[in-house]
């Protein structure tokens, strides 16, 4: 995880002067000075990805001296926004803020993906990271305080062993799916159109288990309305420090994290990707942006196109193997 300090004003101005020239683009590419930069978000307004996109938009607009507009293109688990990026010119006027899953998981999940992640998406920079919390509600006895107890309870009560998620193939779907697969339990998956309705059903006892980014769970956990049994990192989360991680409880195969990143159209040049990444790194260093992400139990991060490509390449084999073994597929 990258830890970026705030550069001095002179360094910022110099870096952004170079980045702005590339991001705005020359007139011959059809982009006049100050033309809007679009950020496509594959999620609904008010969602975590939408907030990430808008926080970065504020920082980029202030630094680049041009309007930055966030367009919500929700639907098909973010694939509608990917389709819009494919149709956009590869001149730096359009970015996608998407979950890392669109490049690392979806190629092995969807029977008809609708795009080529290597040809149609040019990775630019990771934008934000979060670990997941795995929670239970009143449908699960209070004696269940950890993952081992949850595994034993689901084995003994297969008829009520179910879990919710904000969508097929999302990390909040795959985390409990992996847990139950390792336990040998055929738990029922209940997909929801987002996190809030899933939380409502967990609190009402209509589902037993739910994994979501910690920011959507920690207030309810603090109030005792639900119990977060584990967080999905290799170590304890700074946002829920009293909750043991999956690794700490002996479930190292469940270590995973939700992350979001910026992509350019596949035809964009490497030089454009590098200069765009520099602008994103400077935005990620802003204290106000970092503080806003912390309130959502997320960390603002940024890096290079090469680092993002490497992360995608590293994640793909494990997801390909798991999805093939589990038989989880989406239409």
Provide the fold topology.
Blueprint: H1 9-24, E1 37-41, H2 48-64, E2 68-72, H3 79-87, E3 94-99, H4 101-104, H5 106-109, H6 117-120, E4 121-130, E5 132-136, H7 147-156, E6 162-165, H8 171-183, E7 188-191, H9 195-203, E8 209-213, H10 218-223, E9 227-231, E10 258-265, H11 270-284, H12 287-295, E11 299-300, H13 305-326
Parallel strand pairs: 1-2, 1-3, 6-7, 6-8
Antiparallel strand pairs: 3-10, 4-10, 4-11, 5-8, 5-9
What would you say about this model in short?
By secondary structure, the chain is α/β, with parallel strands linked by helices.
Describe this structure in words.
It is a single chain. The longest helix is centred in the last third of the chain and has 22 residues, at about 305-325. The protein is α/β, with parallel strands linked by helices. The relative contact order is 0.19. The protein folds into two domains: about 10-130 and about 260-325, D-Maltodextrin-Binding Protein, domain 2 (3-Layer(aba) Sandwich); about 130-255, D-Maltodextrin-Binding Protein, domain 2. The chain has a six-stranded mixed β-sheet with strand order 2-1-3-10-4-11, sandwiched between helices. Strands 7-6-8-5-9 form a five-stranded mixed β-sheet, sandwiched between helices. It has helices spanning about 10-25, 50-65, 80-85, 100-105, 105-110, 115-120, 145-155, 170-185, 195-205, 220-225, 270-285, 285-295, 305-325, and strands spanning about 35-40, 70, 95-100, 120-130, 130-135, 160-165, 190, 210-215, 225-230, 260-265, 300. Helix 1 (about 10-25) packs antiparallel against helix 11 (about 270-285) and helix 2 crosses helix 11. It is globular, with a radius of gyration of 20 Å. The two termini are about 35 Å apart. The protein has 13 helices and eleven strands.
